[in-house]
Write a structure and sequence with these properties.
about 350 residues; alpha+beta; Pdz3 Domain; 2 domains; 4-stranded antiparallel beta sheet; two-stranded antiparallel ribbon; 9 helices; about 20% strand; Pept_M50_Zn; Zinc metalloprotease; EC 3.4.24.-; protease
């Protein structure tokens, strides 16, 4: 008990950070419902039994027992309705704007949070601070003080941009352009796999030199970090569906809370950075074309728009219900996995 008490403030911060992702996501759906004249009966944060709620003019705002997920309950979302303000009676384009708004809001939040972090901390420049003996970097001729400006056709203004390219190299040779004594030099090397860390490396450490950002640069940093994180997330989900990701690399709500708590202990900007990462990942996860997810709706609505054929509302509701039950079962399995075999970090 004594070891838990000092962590309570950080646990609360982690819960609030995760809740922010859900609120922003559902707020996107809610705002587009209002703009498109769709009646919303419930706006819920969390799942499970109701803890308390506030009844508005037509919407009840709920807090539920388990701080995982949330939803906006729309009139006519699950079955046909004659109400002109029902979701089912809106045009495919209006529906598409509603279901895609959650993911878009998560990406906007990520840009905002990354920009705050960029303005507060700046970023690390890709300057070599130390070289590991007999490493690919040493053998290729890299030197301390070299500034890495490009890898192949990819510009690397930041250290994290460079290191992400190395991690994604899969051991293939890469051409690096470095700035040394005001001269650009081309270097070719081949990353090697670090078995312990299960990733590719070239054997260098960063110098730690930081660049401070003004307002415009902070916003640019927010956009670029969001784009980079989105690319990495798509890559992860692609590897996951191909069976190239180990179960030990996948975590659920418990792992997210543990990592968020650790991030909060490290510092507020670290928590903001991790929250931004999670916001991108939540947004992209939701556009996976699977029933009950926003992506399932997006897929069906794009089909309606392109084909001009309206899908049967009752069948769509049945498909989404089955998808929802599958997702709930998957969530239970992931939670059990989180307890039995927690994600290591």
């Amino acid at each position: 008990m004594g070891s838990i008490l000092p962590n309570i403030p950080y646990i609360i911060m982690a819960i609030l950070a995760f809740s922010l992702l859900v609120i922003i996501h559902e707020l996107g759906h809610f705002m587009m419902c209002k703009l498109n004249g769709v009646k919303v009966s419930e706006f819920s944060l969390g799942m499970g039994p109701k803890l308390f709620g506030i009844k508005g003019k037509e919407t009840e705002y709920l807090i539920k027992a388990f701080p995982v997920g949330g939803y906006v309950k729309m009139e006519g979302e699950e079955e046909s309705s004659s109400d002109p303000r029902s979701f089912t009676n809106k045009t495919p384009v209006q529906k598409l704007s509603i279901v895609s708004a959650g993911a878009i809001m998560n990406l906007i939040l990520a840009v905002f949070l990354f920009a705050i972090v960029g303005g507060a901390k700046g970023y690390i420049l890709p300057i070599v601070g130390k070289i590991v003996p007999n490493s690919p970097a040493m053998n290729a001729g890299l030197k301390v003080g070299d500034t890495i400006t490009k890898v192949g056709k990819v510009k690397t203004d930041r250290w994290d941009e460079f290191i992400n390219v190395v991690y994604a190299s899969k051991g293939e040779s890469m051409n690096i352009k470095v700035l040394r004594d005001s001269k650009l030099i081309d270097i070719s090397l081949k990353p090697v796999k670090n078995v312990k860390e299960n990733r590719y490396i070239i054997g260098i450490f960063v110098s730690g030199v930081e660049k401070k950002l003004n307002f415009g640069e902070s916003v640019g940093y927010g956009f670029s970090q969001t784009v980079d994180t989105a690319k990495q997330t798509f890559g992860f989900f692609g590897s996951l569906f191909k069976g190239q990701v180990s179960g030990s690399d996948v975590g659920g709500p418990i792992s997210i809370m543990r990592i968020s708590t650790k991030a909060a202990q490290t510092g507020f900007t670290t928590l903001l950075y991790f929250t931004a990462l999670m916001s991108v990942q939540l947004g992209i996860f939701n556009i996976i074309p699977f029933p009950a997810l926003d992506g399932g709706w997006i897929f069906m609505l794009l089909f309606e728009i392109i084909s001009g054929k309206k899908l049967d509302d009752n069948k769509v509701g049945t498909i989404n219900y089955i998808g929802f039950m599958f997702l709930m079962a998957l969530m239970v399995i992931i939670v059990i996995k989180d307890i039995v075999s927690p994600l290591k970090f």
